[in-house]
Amino acid sequence: MARRKDSALPPARSVALEVISQVLDKGRDVQAALDYQLNNQKITAQDSALCTELVYGFLRYKGRIEALLGLFLKDSSKLPKKAASVMGLAAYEMLYLDRIPVYASVDWCVGYVKKRFSLGLGKLTNAVLRNLDRMGEKAHDMESIRKEGMSDIALLAAWHSMPEWIVSAWMEAYGEERTQVLLANAQKHAPLGIRVNQTFEAGMDLVNELANDGKSIETIGYGVMYPAGSQPAELKTMINDGLISRQSMASQEVLREALPETWEGPVWDCCCGRGGKTYALLEQDVDVTFASDTSRKRLLGMREEAERLAMYPPESLLMSAAEPPKKGSPLEENPPATILADVPCSGFGTLSRRPDVRYHRTTEGISDLVEVQKAIMENTFSVLKDGGLLVYMTCTINPDENEKQVQAFLERHPEAKLEKEWHTPDDSPYGEYFYVALLRKP
Ligand SMILES: C[S@@+](CC[C@H](N)C(=O)[O-])C[C@H]1O[C@@H](n2cnc3c(N)ncnc32)[C@H](O)[C@@H]1O
């Protein structure tokens, strides 16, 4: 059940507050929590758009906003949680939403805190927000939140709202300059990417039509990119009709870099999810014979995609790619010559689309993921035909899951040959970061 809106707050802020609490306190996925609340609350399209912007924006800047507000609070941990969250939302509006006048953000926030908590807390909220406003440009300067004795890593982590351990790992593996670029890019919004279904006869005509619709900003092959935040209404019908699919430009790019035109069949997409890459490959005539996942729901979604796209699905297998195929499995009878392992990962390459990921990951959780990835690599490499290709892919920026994972694999398997290693360039305009390694079995 969607919780009722808090009537003491304007509708967009009320729903945003509930979604943020679902994400931060209950560990829900941001888009799922937002979809659920927006579908169950009666709010206008305009409020819905503002709510979406507030949720995504606040999650992107939470650490920075808390540090800025902390400059004017003796002990922010003593604030009631909800009061701290509304103050954060109001601060986000003041700092990043030019179209909302500062007084309006202060008014709704202070009014709410007074009504829900106390006059005293309302006065404190007013003072803190006014002080933030007085900071002017200084509120956009990282040095303004530096505390005495604070390390550079802690400062960067707070400013970019990232866990300190990931900033440390990036610094160690990639150096300060690259880390700064990656952190800054993680705050940006991702552009919208779509893929035209090339099995559709007039596919290229459609690409050309979209390229000239005055809304798109780039086309590559069958991919079309729209600016971040845009939702051209006409695309909805095309998606329903299977003419196009949502797929980020970065995801399309990593697949191109994996050189699918050279892959021999049969191909096994061993972590297929809902089939994003499966159908991108099938549309290009790559012989994806098997697709598997441990999630029944996702596997079902993958099969349903076939209907939408008017294509034949691959043989779907509910199984773990980290364990040998069961006796009599079709993988035994017809061993794959190419395996795409788009493995479960920490997702730090997709922060522009999923800013909540940074709050859900722990170092222990990542160690578990690294072990699963290792097991998937070991198992799939042994299932692979001699001379076959293992395509190891992640959507993260984390040396333990990318470069170090592949290096360790090569140390365990000196017979394997690393034919290509690639990651999305740091200055990519696509807003997401992928990694791929092509490993040949002798
Ligand atoms: C990065 S997602 C795959 C995304 C998908 N390839 C796409 O392009 O849409 C990783 C997938 O691996 C699945 N998974 C997790 N552990 C697995 C395992 N041991 N074997 C197979 N799949 C697994 C997850 O359910 C998830 O769907």
TrEMBL record:
- Note one Pfam family from the annotation: RsmF-B_ferredox
Q: Which domain of life is it from?
A: Bacteria
Q: Write out the coiled-coil annotation as residue ranges.
A: none
This protein's UniProt keywords: Methyltransferase, RNA-binding, S-adenosyl-L-methionine, Transferase
**SUPFAM superfamilies cross-referenced by the UniProt entry:** NusB-like, S-adenosyl-L-methionine-dependent methyltransferases
Which amino acid positions bind S-adenosyl-L-methionine, per UniProt?
293, 342
Q: Would the keyword RNA-binding be found if you checked this record's keyword annotation?
A: yes
Alphabetically, which GO biological process terms does the record hold? regulation of DNA-templated transcription; RNA methylation
One GO MF term: RNA methyltransferase activity
Q: Where in the numbering of this chain does the SAM-dependent MTase RsmB/NOP-type domain appear?
A: 170-442
Similarity field: Belongs to the class I-like SAM-binding methyltransferase superfamily. RsmB/NOP family.
Q: What is this protein called?
A: 16S rRNA (Cytosine967-C5)-methyltransferase
Organism from which the protein derives: Halodesulfovibrio aestuarii
